[in-house]
Amino acid sequence: MHRLRRTIILVLALALVAGAIYTVVAVLQRSETLVSERCVAVVGSESFELATDQVANASLISAISVQRGLPPRAASIALATAMQESRLRNINHGDQAGPDSRGLFQQRPSQGWGTEAQVMDPVYATNAFYDGLVKVPGYEAMEVTDAAQLVQRSAFPHAYAQHEGMGRAYASALTGHSDGSLDCTLRMPETAGDPSDVESRMSTAFGAVAADAQGRTVQVNATGPQAWAIAQWAVANAKSLAVTQVDVDGHTWNRQERKGWQASAAAADTVTITVSAPTT
Q: What domain of life does the native source organism fall in (predicted)?
């Protein structure tokens, strides 16, 4: 009898432990804290991963090329350059070769790039880079490293080449020439989104766009590459703007589902960007 009782107690104890383990695992699997936030751009058989702050800067650099009417190749060169110079981060320090270098492109005030405050402004710095690039005859057909070096005049002129694949993938996605090729895996927002903030940031990146805020959404009239450029810009900035869904041209990106771009009934002539609701 005592042996049977001990056996029953042992079985029940094991069952309780197993149940507790199952519960803990289930909770952890659903926990937002376990989500590894990252963005990936795909071109052909290659994929390139960036952190969310890096891809936000990449989206600005690419959007400004669209605003200026430059070819995607310009964005590819700019992204490869910024990746080599700053890892696509707006850093406030230089190195031994350029101690006064600053910003996304490590531009030097002492070399005529502007004031320190100016080169630390990502919009100014990006336009300054493109101002130099468009003066290079035939840059569209050049190797990335050659075109970048003619603008930057770096102490390491061949280093830009190693980032060519990444630059091409993100430029193609963020200028709208590769549909649905950029995806970001993100935790759900902890604060409400602000449609007016989305509009403001979008107009800084792309210039004047036909946008209309309605409730929790911003609707933009756009088609073709412009529509996909705006849509994938919204995904690239979803973390800071609390974007939860983007709809464009028969496709939807949903932050919570984390399945990338999925087929949907989204209109072909409108980009709809939805932000998170206020918490109650």
A: Bacteria
